[in-house]
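Q: What does the assembled structure look like for these inputs?
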Amino acid sequence: MANLTAVLPRPGEIVLEERPEPRPGPRDVVVAVEAVGVCGSDVHYYRHGRIGSFVVTGPLVLGHEAAGTVVAAGAEAAHPVGTRVAIEPGVPCRRCGQCRAGSYHLCRDIQFLATPPVDGAFTRLLAVPDDFAHPLPEQLDAEQGALLEPLSVGIWACRRADLRPGDRVLISGAGPVGLLAAEAARALGAGSVTVTAVSPSRLAVARRRRLDAVVDAAGGLDLAPEFDVLLECSGAPGALAAGLRCLAPGGRAAVVGLSNEDEVSLPLGLVHDREVTVGMVFRYAHTWPTAISLAATGRVDLTGLVSHRFGLAQTEAALTAGATTPDLVKAMVLPPHESLDGAA
Amino acid sequence: MANLTAVLPRPGEIVLEERPEPRPGPRDVVVAVEAVGVCGSDVHYYRHGRIGSFVVTGPLVLGHEAAGTVVAAGAEAAHPVGTRVAIEPGVPCRRCGQCRAGSYHLCRDIQFLATPPVDGAFTRLLAVPDDFAHPLPEQLDAEQGALLEPLSVGIWACRRADLRPGDRVLISGAGPVGLLAAEAARALGAGSVTVTAVSPSRLAVARRRRLDAVVDAAGGLDLAPEFDVLLECSGAPGALAAGLRCLAPGGRAAVVGLSNEDEVSLPLGLVHDREVTVGMVFRYAHTWPTAISLAATGRVDLTGLVSHRFGLAQTEAALTAGATTPDLVKAMVLPPHESLDGAA
Amino acid sequence: MANLTAVLPRPGEIVLEERPEPRPGPRDVVVAVEAVGVCGSDVHYYRHGRIGSFVVTGPLVLGHEAAGTVVAAGAEAAHPVGTRVAIEPGVPCRRCGQCRAGSYHLCRDIQFLATPPVDGAFTRLLAVPDDFAHPLPEQLDAEQGALLEPLSVGIWACRRADLRPGDRVLISGAGPVGLLAAEAARALGAGSVTVTAVSPSRLAVARRRRLDAVVDAAGGLDLAPEFDVLLECSGAPGALAAGLRCLAPGGRAAVVGLSNEDEVSLPLGLVHDREVTVGMVFRYAHTWPTAISLAATGRVDLTGLVSHRFGLAQTEAALTAGATTPDLVKAMVLPPHESLDGAA
Amino acid sequence: MANLTAVLPRPGEIVLEERPEPRPGPRDVVVAVEAVGVCGSDVHYYRHGRIGSFVVTGPLVLGHEAAGTVVAAGAEAAHPVGTRVAIEPGVPCRRCGQCRAGSYHLCRDIQFLATPPVDGAFTRLLAVPDDFAHPLPEQLDAEQGALLEPLSVGIWACRRADLRPGDRVLISGAGPVGLLAAEAARALGAGSVTVTAVSPSRLAVARRRRLDAVVDAAGGLDLAPEFDVLLECSGAPGALAAGLRCLAPGGRAAVVGLSNEDEVSLPLGLVHDREVTVGMVFRYAHTWPTAISLAATGRVDLTGLVSHRFGLAQTEAALTAGATTPDLVKAMVLPPHESLDGAA
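A:
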């Protein structure tokens, strides 16, 4: 099988290449990739060639939100050919203190798809260790399988914010991560879920979902400090500071989105006597089983998020669509298709 | 207002009495009781005059699952006359180490409705401290307000079992507590909820609710040891031991139901290398806000549980109905009614 | 008994007044105050008349780190006359959601000594609820009883930072709170405790205590990012940002000291992929029993911290001593003494 | 180097064999074993050939509490030749859900030294993965390195009992595990540590250590129910039931010792309204770094526990010494010595 792949040779350019078919190690499976979500980080690497200290120094394949079907398996691999799987993109060393403590996402030697220099999933065939290929139940299709990645971010954000049943949850940002964090929060017992956004298109999308409130924050955020949990998913400068002001005493914030600023100014004097806690969110650990369970049983709703679809040859269009398409929510690249024009 | 009250003068007998109207202290409210659920403990006191070390030594008013409307309020009470409230039945000392640590249900000096010598709620008027009268949102009626008590048991059982999102949950017992524990587990993110019961009527009720599986345990429980959480709600001898055998490594059990046996024989040798944890459940602490939030937003379904209704003069019938009515789920006494025949 | 009291009539002035003797409520005790530590917040109120949103608008008695002996007791009070007690200075409402959940320090209606408009402990006689007067074991004298307050801050900081056995702990600031946080961290199983300070006198004090390392941070902090826990106790501008840079992946910071700045600039971009957590520390809840237990058994060392002692008539000298006395660690006011010159 | 090894060919017999020298895999180290503690489980396998479902079906090498020096290392191994290390005896699959969640001790495929069919450490040379060979600081000698294994059990028991600073801790059993659990409890902030034992020799040993109380339980245990934590380390029938009766409301028990009985009868009726929690303890996970840290800094005292020492040729004597030596605390086999007579 030819392994057609979309490659970023340098920032601002995507080229299609035939790459060698991957050969699975004894515990690996080779997945025929069927759907890959486009993430903001992919777009950022495409445009700028770096995110913080992660710098693209050679040709790189982007894409890390992926699902597909096993087409080859190593001798000891757990999943037979034909198994439909969602791919968890970060494979850790399995030996360091973080791995042993269950925080494998903090492993210094993690190999994470589409993070330089590890190639990602905008390709036809991808080899992954079997335990990072999670079998999908029949209720979930490949696109939903790919959406388990941003859902995992949302689940992890809820955990990092120590979300407790009945909590009043404020989510800033109505992109895919914010909307899926909202789904996760609801499924985990949040008493209410309020989402803020600034763009009319994002607000419109949010209003179509089952949320307790959607707030237009374009003119600033003026909510009473009565929220137990803040999930900052927008990455907008000032969003974290504004959200912190809305937390009740004992409130907990999880910071998913971070603006490019290295330094963030926070009103700690204000929230000090409310004894607020702020936790950074970086990826996730062992969230796929939970994500699959919540999605397969309908506790989390993965429908209505994929707004645009592209073939593998249109990967560059998928990466640039956001800039020109205000109503884009989540773009998917479907590698089996060589050509799809982006329409939903 | 006359304060008609159903009194247990001695085991096996209920008489109606006119009692003095309660006068509220400065932070109390007087609640006109509109619905009181009949609990197994009420039936047990009625029949046997004691539960373990709690012994009825004088006339006692039973009933501790109650809701109604504020009809009088102390000068500093938080809720005005007319407020619809659910009553949390255990008022602690507010000063001991347990109270200060947030475990006020373990306060040695707690005053708990219908636990000797504290009178309960089978009455027209009841005075309670304002913070133990939780305002009800309009979505919840008085019967649902009364059901917040067994729902609180279910929520607390989930917390005691450290229920985590995605957990596979086994609940033994399909009475009101088991069924509401199932609702709580689902609302808190359980991946699957399986309920076991032995009587055909209980199994039939369970099968009408949104559960992932209902298992007939009449001939014993033969499930693979793959559950993360066990909530033992049946109190049947042997149920805890049988349930423990179904737990996966790292499994956690919460024991709500306890048979009258003082000593329980457990297969600890078997579950030792699975490192199982077993937590007793005794009442609950600060669950009402969560319960109200989950019920008002439909995350928990309180409908379909009240199977029989009685007037205050039929309290004794309500207490004895279970013995003769196989399809009884939850009996409610509605004190404003002097006479109701028990039909649903 | 005359109740001589040191009063702050306006910022920058302390006068002695005879005040009425307090009369205990039924559950109160009247404590003859024997030792009161001078805290940085007392000094700040004395100088500036406010801390953030807490503003002195009338005469105020300062002092909130106190211990003494019960000299009068209400009819139902738990401690008889003659009981030696340490005073916990914040009495909450006991009814709100925070109180009920065990977070009574976050109660909006808390009455906290020496926080406007509540009078504090620079006085001969003080009435407190019996459960906020903690009996002292014979091993602890009154000054050590007073030091339980800053020790409580240290214990609570460790809890807020979720300190786990074996953790490598970095503490910025070697004032009484920093040094007692170090004692607490050690007693709770820290693997190593490193304290930073900038002034030679503070560094000298720190070097006399049982710490694993003392670091001079005068020229900046240049430590490898290998600490699990940061306890920021200095309140120096930039100290939190500098400390965060020293945290390992998964690190947790507790912020005790806050500079007067409302806004604090933090290097969140840097610590994002280490998934650091930052928790504000505001006072403490139910720490006295732990503090007493750790101090009475020698797990925490309370000796060597009181450097200067003053009589009640020298309270103003005690409040101003820090500005002119580089080797001051903790100043104590001893109210039974009318005149003490401040020497150790 | 000849690899002299003590082998259990069948229950009740130990023979010395020359075995092939182990060859390290790329990430393995070969350890020259210098000290191996004799554990009750070794004695049990020696006598009975099985523990529960673990059955000896062929020749087996016993011993799993080991330390030594690296004498050969795979190409990618982290520790160079000459590194002194303590061996963690259970190597998990690193891939299953338990491994990924940090509970690798619950891995179904764990390879645990001296658990059939995996050979143990009564040998001269042992190959282990580098991350299960923990470098020893110079403060700890090989015997202390071997004692990190039972100390790990004690640390894990404290974690399983959710030991909190200030807790009053009851430990039943004064063997090495009980005594090291006491050390761990103290180092983790226990307010008091009480140890019970029944034999005069064990009581005498316990009285020589820094404990708050030692209680003779030979005539039964009659302590007030005021303990927060129970660590059952004796394995005596009835010890768990007796200990549970001593727990205060909210108390937590960790069960290390289990008698051979499959079924244990517990007074759950009694402890139900105290809401007690009982957790099984099976081995440990990621405790070595903590154990090393606590031992190297003297927070835990590993001295005074090794009472008898044997050469490798006296392994059988080491296994049988306990039956005839009332004052035996911990027997060590020192493989470099061919002949040692057992004296301390």
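The two ends of chain A are 28 Å apart (CA to CA).
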